[in-house]
Specification:
Structural class: alpha/beta
Catalytic activity: N-acetyl-alpha-D-glucosamine 1-phosphate + UTP + H(+) = UDP-N-acetyl-alpha-D-glucosamine + diphosphate
Oligomer: single chain
GO biological process, one term: UDP-N-acetylglucosamine biosynthetic process
CATH superfamily of the largest domain: Spore Coat Polysaccharide Biosynthesis Protein SpsA, Chain A
GO molecular function: UDP-N-acetylglucosamine diphosphorylase activity
Number of domains: 2
Protein name: UDP-N-acetylglucosamine diphosphorylase
CATH architecture of the largest domain: Alpha-Beta Complex
Keywords: Nucleotidyltransferase, Transferase
Distance between the termini: 76 Å
Radius of gyration: 25 Å
Largest sheet: 8 strands, mixed
Number of helices: 14
CATH class of the largest domain: Alpha Beta
Number of strands: 24
Helix content: 25-40%
Length: about 500
Amino acid sequence: MDVEALRADLKACNQEHLVQFWDALTPDQQQALYADLKSINFSEVNTFFNRCIGDLKNIGEKVDSYLQPIPPQATGSVVRTDPEKLKQYEEEGLVQIAEGRVAVLLLAGGQGTRLGVNYPKGMYDCGLPSRKTLYQLQAERILKLQQLAKASHSSGPCVIPWYIMTSEATKEPTRQYFNRHKHFGLQPEQVVFFEQSTLPCMTFEGKVILESPFKVAHAPDGNGGLYRALTKSGVMEDMLARGIKYTHVYCVDNILVKMADPVFMGFCISKGANCGAKVVEKAFPTEPVGVICKFGDHYQVVEYSEITLQTAEKRNSDGRLMFNAGNICNHFFTTEFLKMVCGEREDELRHHIAKKKIPFCNENRETVKPCEPNGIKMEKFVFDVFQFTGDFACWEVLREDEFSPLKNADGAAKDTPTTARHSLYNLHYRHVLKAGGKFIRKDGSGVPHIASRSEDAEDALVVCEISPRLSYAGEGLESAVKGKGFMSPLVLKAPEEDGQEEIHSKQ
């Protein structure tokens, strides 16, 4: 270890405080700290911090004069597109999937801390009758979609690679979880794990924070760290080698997510887009959700807090909000676009500041957990690359069909295990009705409605779960449900699924 050279480098970057406890450390602790510090490009970190501080001056500035709605030619909607056109989009998506040109990429760096657990969020069981986790639901949707593609176009490989970007904290638990469950029926080689980078946490004055006398406080660099990680991990090279042309990128916490949705893929491909997004219509003008729009001459997600109420309330002639494309972190990219971003534009992406309570080492060499934010984490966002395309496509879907995030523990106002579970029941209930089934009460009367998301009691609603192995999006259920009556709870499984008996009662 060249400690003197390290001290000189740290002093040049105004970070010499990081070795203030050096002489009190054991040899092993010195080795650990030395390795940690040598892995950090402090000049780059200081540059990131100074840019962030400069950008802070613009926070709170309203951006209304730059905003434009997404042009009509770049938009589409699942509810305003005729069934024949939807079928064409779906067919195009299935063709590309069958030919092995489509991948899915999962942003799975988050721990379940806000859910009250200390393991990756994708491993969370939100209380469905099947006890399936987010990871299992998503794996089984990929399996079913591959089957649908093969049934339509049997000549192709019909394999969807699943790239899973983890963080330092979630990588090994996630990998071990998939191994224990034999990748939920997927081929091990089609599931590729890779890790996003981290950045040191900083004080508000620009000093890197020590978490302990021999450990720097690190945090993942945000889901926009994807683009650097694609190159660093070799995933970009793997995509090219596999012949992937289109990738669906999404976040782990949406229980209703349709990975590689062939309709969405087909829509974006038909538009000639190299970058696209699924959106949901804003529920009301002040809903706290980012809005996708044109910002000057490029596309961007604008935070709700940056738009004045007057602009947020603007409506079109049809009565719909003018700026209504609510971002749900559900994106389409061509491989060529990703390759361009990773190779030429990644350095242009700017970090965003998140003020956080960051454990730090005090002068007594004790780790302290602060009660108030004491520093910042610097993050990039996955959608920040929208600015680099002129060929953008925006596909609006129904919130109740495709978006119900799991973020908070039960007891919070929204986005809890209960709301996620109820959203899935609601969707599957409607699938059964559409396929010709019905639900009846124990007294023989019909069920007049399904409970709203706000109702907490399971017995106040129809509990209905359809295995993704049986149906990807409600298709193919007629033989199982048409003309039949069911009592809640109902669990419909695919014939190949072993284990618990189906929880249902027929009349």
